[in-house]
Amino acid sequence: MPLQNGESRLARMQSFLGIIIITAALVFTSKNRKFINWRTVTDAVNSGAIAITMFPTIIFFAAFIQTMYYLGGVQWLLRHVGWFFYKLLDTSGAEAVVASASPFIGQSENTLLVKDYLEHMTKSELHACMTAGFATISGSVFQAYVALGVDAKNLITACIMSIPCSLALSKIRYPETEEPITRGPVILSKRKKEANILHALGNGAATGMQLSLLILATIIGMVSLIYAINFFLTWLGQFVGISNLSLELILGYLFYPLTWLLGVPGRDVLAVSKLLGLKLIGNEFIAYSQLTGATGNPPVQDHLSPRGLMIAQFSLAGFANTGSVAQVIAAIGSLAPSRKEDVSRLALSACLTGATATMLTAAIVSMIV
Question: Does the predicted model carry a pTM greater than 0.85?
């Protein structure tokens, strides 16, 4: 992207500085720094009206993905993409499969592909699998974000780039100290196959409807909660002399330094940092809705520069939020009950690492575009 008026090549260096600081922070907080596999890290970083529009698109994509499962298309793609990342990044087969699948089927379903190995996974593998889910969005909700007005190219690029970034940062945060049993060829767990293509289509549509209702309920609940908190903060602000005190304003200042490190132009930093905060405590749908004005408020994107808007769209493209932590614990815990304690201990770390991976992707794009 050409430099705009008022920008300089320092904007590129700003993003580069962000990449260095983000990576250094993960190294500093790593569980076992001496066991970090730097091949995985360096190779990955270098690879460089809501319901009306949302329901049909989510249902269609969920049905489409389920149909492609029935026809074997998704399995074929995962074997080849998983093999690629296994060879490129020196990860285990299970990690490669789950990370590759995350942009297609999401964080709750990706571990189904390796459910036979969950009981025997190392803690580092579990951490990496969860991180990959937190760092990306799924195909079933992709079109819903596009319907909100988010650039499809940015979403696709963010998901693809976040696969190696999530593996890299996870291996910094929680290096492998054991020997995974899936360190070898990528093998997918067998799943129950539908009777025919219509059966697959129906199952996918049902899944899409459940997902749509869950998202809508979450949006209603979170928006209501945010409004309630803002009402209290505004009332409190009147007593302490702070006008327009709100949750978004508090989060905006908390995330300000990190947002600046992503390469966001100075005049856009506060607005984008507010969105990052909303995404972490709410979800990415809330943040994207605020960005595009789908919630009824003035669109934030109308006041952003093209560069600021691009970075915002990239940095929000992930499932890392507080609600997803409980969702992942429940999903993996139901598949591997004996590992629920480990998953519970690792989930928050994986969520923060996944959020960091998504932001690292945004910083890389900001530096090179």
Answer: no
